[in-house]
Amino acid sequence: MHFIDECKISVVAGDGGDGSAAFRREAFVPRGGPAGGDGGDGGSVILVADAQLSTLEDQQYRKHYVAERGEPGSGADKYGKAGRETLVLVPAGTRIFDHETGALLGDLAVAGERFIAAQGGTGGRGNIHFATSTYQSPDKAETGTPGERRMLRLELVLLADVGLVGYPNVGKSTLLAASSRARPKIGNYPFTTLTPQLGLVGLPGGRSFVMADVPGLIEGASEGAGLGHRFLRHLDRTRVLIHLLEISGEPGRDPWRDYQTIRNELTRFSPQLAARPELVVLGKGDVTEVAEQHRHFSQQFSEHQIELHLISGVSGVGLRELYEKVWAEIAAHDKLTR
Ligand SMILES: Nc1nc2c(ncn2[C@@H]2O[C@H](COP(=O)(O)OP(=O)(O)OP(=O)(O)O)[C@@H](O)[C@H]2O)c(=O)[nH]1
Ligand SMILES: [Mg+2]
User: Fold this and answer.
1) Mutate which of 165, 176, 183, 186 for ligand 1 pocket (most atoms within 8 A of beta carbon)
2) pLDDT score at 250
3) Which of 33, 79, 301, 334 suits 244 as a labelling partner, its CA being 20 to 30 A distant?
4) CATH 2.70.210.12: which residues of the chain?
């Protein structure tokens, strides 16, 4: 299961500086030899894959990248200074497309790789290059060529780090919508979500992770009840699960029973998936009755050494704390596998 982070940027390279058509000035010589230097090359805009980055977030904010132009040449054989290049840092794995034609231009798969997004113009040659034995005083010099400019689309494929599991209607999609720019369908009935949805959840300090919302599970999903359980394969590559529970009015359900039912279904699908670190959450915490009963259920879960967090996708209560715990699990996992 993956998620495509994408953005559009414009890149404008610097123009090359013009060459100069100056002449040497010497006392008593009306016109000395040609002395106009070359213009400097314009700077290029270069995309560089950086190991520290994991999203295209910087490019969501800054969309225009311009490199410096080359300085013109001048008299006394002076060459113009080359324009400075502009580096655009992107995460490894970024693919670069021409926005107009859709053509794939580059693929920065590995950190350190570079792609010239817009080539700087070439500086024009000054008249010092144009003198010949028969043409001693050339008054022509070249103009610099313009820098390239174009619109690019950047695309980055991200894998889901976190999976949301639970009964239908517990508020999984609401939680994803509250935490990311994803806009999954939300409805007050079971099985609103039919296909997995992904969103990028941002945390302070430039941290982020991809969260996957999948359909709800019910008892017997492994035998095909409800939407079955095959969609859980989309959580194969996740590192943490958020198990969302609610206080439901349905007969035969309560958070602890629901918890065991879903755990059982997860194990039947895949013992490896069931073994992932899991954060257990009681949702809809904005409802007074839920907030009041949280202590009671929390007590019950703690008897099984499980911490029961209280959150609400509607009011946002508890989300910050929850995502810090998610982040700690992701970081611990990264440390283990590095
Ligand atoms: N009060 C309150 N209602 C919520 C909250 N989260 C979800 N709901 C409501 O619960 C219902 C189900 O929400 P969804 O987000 O669609 O639930 P889901 O778990 O994605 O459901 P499925 O896709 O069917 O599995 C909707 O009517 C939501 O408005 C919450 O934090 N507080
Ligand atoms: Mg849903």
Assistant:
1) 186
2) 86
3) 334
4) 2-157
Query: Residue 314's closest CA among 291, 289, 287?
Result: 287
Closest by Cα among 27, 15, 117 to 72: 15
CB 123 within 8 A of CB 60: no
Residue intervals in the chain for CATH 3.40.50.300: 160-337
Does the beta carbon of 288 sit less than 6 angstroms from any atom of ligand 1? no
- In this structure, the residue with its CA closest to atom 16 of ligand 1 is 186
Domain 160-337 is in which class? alpha beta
Distance 165 CA to ligand 2 centre (A): 10
Structural fold of domain 2-157 = Spo0b-associated Gtp-binding Protein; Chain: A, (2.70.210)
Is 100 exposed, middle or buried, given 0-12, 13-18 or 19+ CB atoms closer than 10 A? exposed
Q: What atom of ligand 1 comes closest to residue 283's alpha carbon?
A: 31
Whole-model pTM above 0.90? no
Neighbouring C-beta atoms of residue 91, cutoff 10 Å: 21
- Ligand 1 atom at shortest distance from the alpha carbon of 189: 24
In tens, the pLDDT along 216-249 reads: 999 999 999 999 998 898 888 899 999 999 998 8
pLDDT per position as a tens digit, 268-294: 999 999 999 999 999 999 999 999 999
